[in-house]
Design goal:
It contains 9 helices and 8 strands. By secondary structure, it is α/β, with parallel strands linked by helices.
């Protein structure tokens, strides 16, 4: 997909990766970007910065807590109406809060599912739309077990699974909406607050390369694909198995044990 003249929505867009994604979309010719975030002052400042850089009314801010289902519904529809349509959606909003697992699930999982469904509703070809692309931001923590952040890891696994399921031909052939997963890096080697602060600082310093990678994904990635951004390097695609793992055959172990006993 070419980004030029396309209309986009980015959640969690007031700062960090979300803001960088908005900037890269505009830099690559997006007509207008709707920035959704719960942080009103930061969000408005972000939009002011982008409009000063790219021109008046290229970015517009919508204050919303994506964990509030009815508010998110209303805000999303208002954003689409303001944009005059929708071709690109980036579900980027996310939090890390192991103590409040309900909030973490609401933001990291429920809002991604809701945002995806709302985006498809606006873009699907079988309802008169033109198709489009949805990028759901997960994490490499959604691809393996992370003992230090079990709730966060579980929510990011859910984003991967949901996105891959909705990218199946059953849905894509009807809607024409590509669903893609982006997995930024996260360090698993932290034991105290100093390590966590280092992890966050390292993440922030690589945000621009992540946003560059996401632009590539929007342009070139196939429906249902999973992409990793790490170490400031270009994004790369990984493959996950769709079939169940093979059942462990106890007889193989029994045969090996018998041979040991005989010898």
């Amino acid at each position: 997909m070419q980004i030029r003249s396309k209309r986009a929505i980015v959640t969690g867009a007031a700062s960090d990766l979300g803001l960088s994604i908005g900037r890269e979309l505009l830099r690559n010719g997006a007509a207008v970007v709707a920035m959704i975030d719960i942080r009103e002052t930061a969000g408005q400042n972000a939009v002011d910065t982008l409009n000063a850089e790219f021109g008046r009314n290229r970015a517009v801010f919508f204050h919303c807590d994506v964990a509030n289902n009815s508010l998110f519904d209303d805000t999303f529809k208002k954003a689409v109406k303001t944009l005059g349509g929708l071709e690109i959606l980036v579900n980027n909003a996310g939090i890390i809060d192991e103590n409040n697992f309900t909030k973490t699930i609401d933001v990291n999982v429920t809002s991604v599912i809701r945002g995806t469904l709302l985006g498809i509703q606006q873009m699907q070809k079988d309802s008169g739309g033109k198709g489009g692309v949805i990028v759901n931001v997960s994490s490499v923590a959604g691809l393996y077990s992370l003992s230090q952040l079990p709730v966060y890891s579980a929510t990011k696994h859910a984003v991967v699974s949901f996105s891959r399921s909705f990218a199946q031909p059953y849905h894509y052939e009807r809607t024409g909406v590509r669903i893609i997963v982006m997995c930024p890096e996260i360090s698993e080697n932290f034991k105290n607050m100093d390590d966590k602060l280092y992890m966050i600082d390292k993440y922030i310093r690589r945000i621009d390369s992540m946003a560059h990678g996401l632009i590539y994904v929007i342009r070139c990635a196939q429906n249902g694909s999973i992409w990793i951004s790490e170490d400031g390097n270009p994004v790369y695609e990984i493959q996950l198995f769709d079939s169940l793992p093979q059942k462990f055959d106890d007889s193989v172990l029994d045969d090996a044990e018998r041979k040991v006993e005989i010898n």
